[in-house]
Amino acid sequence: MKKILFIATLATLFLITSVISTTIYVRPGKLIVHADDYPNATSVVYNLTLRNDNEFPVIVSFVKSGNIQTLITILEDGFTMEPAEMKDVGLEISLTGPATASGTITVGFTPSEGQGMPVTYGVDVTIYGRGGGTTKKCAGTKTSCGTYPDCKDLTKLDGCYNGYKRSYYCSNNQPKYSESCTDYCCQQFYGSVGKCQSGVCKGQASPPPVKLVLNITNGLGGTRSAKITLYIPGTSTIVNTSTINGYGTIHSSNSTVDFMMEFDSSILIVLLKSLNLTKLSGTSQIIIDVVPTSIPNVSLIKAYKISIPSTFSFTGIILKIKYSTLSFGNEQGLAIYKCGSYNDLTNVCNDNWVKISATRDTVNDIISAELSSFSVYALGESQQTTTTTTTLQTTTTQSSSSSSRSSGGTTTTTTIPETQGSLTCSDDDGTNYENKGTCTLDGSTYTDFCSSNTALREFYCSDSICAMEEKDCDAYCKEKHGQNQTGTCSQGACVCKEIVIVEEVKEEGKKPTGLFIDILGASIASNAFTIGTVVVLASFGIFGWRYQDRLKQFFTSTSHGKSKGSYSITRETPRVGYVEIKPVKKEIEQPKEQPRAPPIGNDVKNKVIEEIRKRAIEEDRKFK
Fold it and tell me: Is pLDDT of 622 > 60?
């Protein structure tokens, strides 16, 4: 299907009388509109962006030429722009005109008080209309469904897909389908061992396929179509392929695949490396669309908005754009640009466009880049700023790019190379799992965060991109600090804590400290004064808050007073946590040797918790 092509240019013209010049700024410099992109509209509005770079006010005027004169309405004309003022002027373009119409809109800047000479710039416009006929649409039936001229015969699509029978139908002129499991289709997928069980296609010789449900939209209520191909990771072996228009399903016999999505007649290709399908559930929404925008000093060829669900877990992203069918000037000038923050309503980049590192395959006409995140990416051709100066003298001027001579004046064209930003990656802590750090790429910052109470997503620089690793904090703490550690994730970092169980200690002439398994009630505080500050594993059982009250009573009662020390309770779950006792040092009678906590395995920990639970019940009965 034909698409809108904006070619944005920045033209700066200087018209000088003596020492005063007039500068004009207009973009885009060229506009191409296809009516087929708007099947339900009779007209569309686009903006010309103007800026007064002069130190004096200018009067703006427009003149239309060619056979576009009756097809374009300029919504504002003959106004004054103050110095440094920027303004958008709407062009209402009729889509019901002839099959092809072309012409020029000449924009004029005239100094309002005669400080300089008027200057003009021509914007080339091409309109591919509907030939004056009615809007062309697909019929909205099973034999003619979709967006004109890409009308599909859905009867040709019915059949078996990945073990399931698929029946297509047309809804709101968009192809849809329903699926059901049949033994015939299941055997087509698995062979003779295939069989439907409870609506699921299963094969005894192979694991059941993983089901990936997608909803592909433009993020603004419209559906989009993309070809999805699943590969065995790192190979060209296809697991499955399907074209999905809006809502659809694709199955895979592999739980991990390389996920390739082709969009816009396969001009855009997005590859997710080693996508884990088992972590996905329900419907995953993918947002993808061609967006009309512009980049200063760049001829924009294509721009795409891409968004993938955060539940997708993969190891890398590759973006490719095929440019063999696209219009451009110099292949060596092609580059990929990124907008970190894009406004869908105004189609304007809130941030600066940044040129990212990319490679060109000149044999296959493909430009590709490795990404660390999704946003709006554009293919553009670096433009050179052209300055034209006209004087009222007869002179000859030679420049690096061209020279010319005329009796009324001399025009000099100077080429100024454009400087673009480059890909930079920096992080403040590398892979420090116990510190909340950041990774910055092209001005976009990614911060470590907890994906669950035990899982950390750590961002760090790797091969000039921000890579992400998911870390199990509990396993990390045990590996890093010992098996007597437990790990949780809090505020973007792993938090490691030591589990301490103080065993019974007896010394001649001293009162035994008692078993620190019996940690509930006032006894925990009393025993703490024998050996000092301790942190012990506690089970609060079904009477949890009562035991906390009893600790509070011990430290605030008249008989003991607050000078005995303090305590704190950290709950890891509603019933299990840690109690830390901090007595006043002068009241501590230290033994000759501090008892050491043995390493705690899961079996020991479970026995301790069970013993605590039993004692808690006994203590609670006494307390009553």
Answer: no
Query: Would strands 449-450 and 411-416 be described as parallel, antiparallel, or unpaired?
Result: unpaired
End-to-end CA distance of the chain: 80
* Strands (DSSP E) found in 452-548: 455-462, 465-472, 485-490, 493-498, 534-539
371 and 392 housed in the same domain: no
Together in a domain, 448 and 553: no
Average pLDDT, integer, range 106-126: 87
Residue 383, SS3 per DSSP: coil
What is the tens place of the pLDDT at every residue in 323-368?
Answer: 988 888 888 889 999 998 888 777 788 888 888 888 888 888 999 9
Domain presence at residue 577? yes
**160 part of a folded domain:** no
Handedness of CA 221, 227, 232, 238 (dihedral sign): positive
CA 121 – CA 106 distance, rounded (Å) = 6
Q: What per-residue confidence (pLDDT) applies to 549?
A: 55
Give the chain's domain count. Answer: 5
Q: What is the domain range of residue 471?
A: 425-496
DSSP per-residue codes, 59-100: EEEEEEEETTTTTEEES--SEEE-TT-EEEEEEEEESSS-S-
Domain match, 315 and 389 both = no
50 contacts 5 by C-beta, under 8 angstroms: no
CB-based contact 155:146 (threshold 8 Å): no
* Nearest-angstrom CA–CA distance, 584 and 365: 76
Residues 529 and 412 in one domain: no
Residue that has been written with the tokens 């007073």 in this structure: 561
| Per-residue DSSP letter, 207 | P
Residue 541 falls within a domain, yes or no?
Answer: yes
- Asked if residue 366 and residue 249 are part of one domain, the reply reads yes
Tell whether 314 and 410 lie within a shared domain: no
Instruction: Assess if residue 363 is contained within a domain.
Output: yes
Rounded Cα distance between 445 and 584, Å, is 46
Task: Please tell me whether residues 579 and 483 are part of one structural domain.
Answer: no
Helix, strand, coil percent values for the chain (each to nearest 5)? 15, 45, 40
- Candidates 519, 514, 516; CA nearest to 539 is 519
Q: Which residues neighbour 221 within 8 Å (Cβ) at sequence distance 6 or greater?
A: none
Separation between Cα atoms, residue 374 and residue 151, nearest integer Å:
31
Count, in order, helices (H) and strands (E) of the chain: 5, 49
Look at residue 252 and give its three-state secondary structure.
Answer: strand
Beta strands of 8-78 (E only): which ranges? 11-17, 20-27, 30-34, 43-51, 58-66, 72-74
Measured CA to CA, the distance from residue 310 to residue 99 in angstroms comes to: 44
- Same domain? For 473 and 456 the reply is yes
Listed in sequence order, the DSSP H helices in 457-543 are 473-481, 523-531
On the question of pLDDT at 404 being above 60, the answer is: no
Residue 350: what pLDDT?
85
H-type alpha helices, 449-600: 473-481, 523-531, 544-556
Which is more confidently placed, 405 or 79?
Answer: 79
Residue 99, number of CB atoms within 10 A of its CB: 12
